[in-house]
Design brief:
Largest sheet of chain A: 6 strands, mixed
Shape of chain A: globular
Strand content of chain A: 15-25%
Order of helices and strands of chain A: HEHEHEHEHHEEHHHEHHHEEE
Largest interface: A-B, 34 and 34 residues
Structural class of chain A: alpha/beta
Oligomer: homodimer
Radius of gyration of chain A: 21 Å
Distance between the termini of chain A: 52 Å
Strand order of the largest sheet of chain A: 3-2-1-4-6-5
Number of helices of chain A: 12
């Protein structure tokens, strides 16, 4: 068994993932990362280490004309070769606002649909140590505060913004079994060793995307200072996560008493606020330092009735000595 | 009063620094940062805002021949112009090991001597927001863990490794009154506005120094991603400091009980260890993640009598169920 496959099955055990009787959706773009994950899972099935039902899900962002079409055909052929079920959809990505973020959201809505349709245990993505380091740098440059500098988790939850089942937002587990164990070049090497092609995502080479510039320009630049910069940054982001972990959860409730909050020192206040927001929104995506600071000002201001706006039509407001969180439900038109 | 001077006196008050009856040593290299600090303090003296005795201290690293000599002459003339006492010494920097670090240490030993000789309140250095951001990046690239990623403080303590008074190591306060309020370009502009020259430290342009490469190459590169990267990084390092602040100091004592340590989760263990090491060494300079991890292994290992070596002839060792810290005193030959 190749080292790549051995590391995957060891991590699979460590993460407590299922070995049989479940359906697993694998998100496959056609790039080396996701192709290597599909190949390794296929090998583990062949070797009877995993007795699972695999579904390959490919979202065609349709942003690159014929190349997008070729990606989709490539992934379909891969699914046929591996004898995995294949699911695909062609998206209609809004080009207003942040294209990168719109594409990501559309992809996750598609994955939520497939996870529900196949009654899957979770959606498996092929994020690597490199993604961990890139995400850290992007958030560092953006100045998103310690929240954004903490690490992606191997198991997380995604909640659909659009899809509901019995009036509950659709949720699914995102599982990243390569996240802390594999570098991107290992995925490329593994595909080559298995004699499989992979697609070079042209979008990955398009420098108008922030992530691509970080990957293609900034990281090579930093490697001149430290050849092991990827591992170093991945370790740093893990340390920050660890540091943020011991939250004082006794303060966490539906609403926060302003008198109590005012007694906290700054560090503890930030911790409590983070934990409280996480309690309400399930993650802290798009919450920036500026939002936390605005809530801090709201807490200490003597005026009543002020409001802080968070991303995604959310607000934190003050009422009768308490802070409340509210998410305005956006009805589909 | 220029904005630069106004910001300085406001911060002076905020930091609780003295207004009269004290001697203040200003460390002046001749670069814009330190010249602007000396000029601003001189102006505050003229305006009778500060009634202090100022001493300009210049350490000649003697690493650049005639240019080093010209720097020293330039600073001496500056001191004469401002009617400040002038102290200087020409160093003999060891070129074995890290030249940059050796130069820094020699400079601080000189400053310790001058601070003692003049019975000074403290040594004032002209670190700016830029230094904060550069130090953060250097430590990030080195992978020095969260300790290294936390911010320089406006008031810190330096303990001499060489000089002793009545068998006590010589200590002095380092005060950085420009640290979180001024960018480097403001110091250059202020010198120009005052019609004063400053020296362009050639060493600052020598790219074999890590800091110089960070300053001249990496930061401009990052500015293409975020024009406010200096402020962003300075803010991030402050946030990390804040996060590391609420240490559980009840655990801190001369020795640490291993049974207690083993009960702590990883995050708390790291916090306790950091606080304990800080208690013993006064700062965490040169303590890396690898040292903390080694002490973690020592704590959890069943074997007795193992030792972890820290930089500067320090050790942490296990004895009869406790961790001990020891610094081997290096006698001068």
């Amino acid at each position: 068994m190749k080292n790549f496959v051995r590391k995957l099955i060891t991590n699979w055990r460590k993460l407590g993932l299922p070995f049989f009787d479940e359906t697993i959706v694998i998100a496959v773009s056609g790039g080396a990362d996701s192709v290597s994950l599909a190949l390794a899972l296929h090998e583990l099935k062949q070797r009877k280490k995993l007795n699972l039902n695999f579904v390959i899900a490919h979202f065609n962002h349709d942003l690159r004309g014929i190349e997008s079409e070729k990606d989709a055909q490539f992934v379909q052929k891969l699914a046929e070769n591996l004898d995995f079920q294949f699911e695909t959809e062609t998206g209609n990505i809004s080009t207003t606002g942040n294209l990168e973020e719109n594409a990501r959201l559309a992809r996750y809505e598609f994955l939520a649909k497939i996870a529900q349709k196949t009654n899957a245990y979770g959606v498996f993505t092929a994020h690597t140590i490199n993604d961990q380091a890139e995400t850290f740098l992007m958030n560092l440059i953006r100045g998103s505060g310690l929240l954004g500098l903490s690490a992606m988790k191997p198991i997380a939850e995604f909640q659909s913004k659009e899809l509901r089942v019995e009036s509950q937002a659709l949720r699914f587990q995102i599982i990243r079994p390569l996240l802390n164990i594999t570098k991107r070049e290992e995925t490329e090497n593994f595909c080559q060793e298995k004699g499989f092609e992979f697609r070079k995502d042209e979008m990955n080479a398009d420098e108008k995307f922030f992530r691509v510039r970080v990957r293609k320009k900034l990281i090579p630049f930093l490697q001149e200072f430290n050849p092991k910069i990827i591992e170093t940054l991945a370790k740093t982001t893990s340390l920050i996560t660890l540091e943020l972990q011991p939250l004082n959860t006794e303060f966490i409730s539906e609403r926060l008493k302003i008198n109590d909050l005012q007694k906290l020192d700054k560090a503890l206040f930030y911790n409590v606020l983070r934990a409280w927001l996480k309690h309400h929104r399930s993650d802290l995506r798009n919450v920036d330092l500026k939002h936390i600071e605005a809530i801090e000002r709201l807490t200490h201001s003597r005026k009543s009735g002020r409001i802080v706006e968070l991303p995604n039509a959310e607000t934190v407001y003050k009422k009768q000595g308490y802070l409340y969180y509210e998410k305005t439900r956006v009805e589909k038109s």
